[in-house]
Amino acid sequence: MTFPYRTLIAALGAFAATACSPSGPADTPEGAKSGGTKSGCLSRAYPEIGGPISLVNDKGEAVTQDTFKGHPTLIYFGFTYCPDVCPMTLVTVARAYKMLPEGIDPPQTLLISIDPERDTPEKLAEYVATSAFPDNLVGLTGTPEQVRAAAQAFIADYSRVDDPSSTAGYTMDHTSLLYLMDKDWNLKTFFTHDDTSETIAACLADVLDE
Question: Model's pTM, two decimal places?
Fold first, then answer.
């Protein structure tokens, strides 16, 4: 590894959402391929982020990372009961895709649920069909162990938080990042809650035009 694993976890943890609400910005660790987040979106290609997944899609089919290789993939860890951050993020992505230059196709888009207790394939299928979300959005879920393993591969953290005001009795705190994987399932860059549709579209236009 190019720098301590704990340093990367701490830095990405600063981007985590608390009670499904984004936190403040943080410095990026020194292991980026160029000078950190301020030097452009391609400076966020950490080799430590990303790895194998073994999950179930919203049609009930078993999938792995090999299912999605061959095309760039944008990944988000969230859940269908998320009241604001998750849907806002997915709407932002959909708007970014519409801003892409003609001839550049958007990446395939995955929502990996960190709430498998509630997010069945059927529930995800209904959720990802929301008209304001990306047209190519696919929901993934699995056993708690499968979901945790996928999150750990992306250094994405989440936890259950009791919430008596919720009809389900709990909500989920989770890292709120968008991970862009290349066609070989290697991290190309990631986006934070500070990124807008415009900044995401501009980065994707550069990356996908390579």
Answer: 0.84
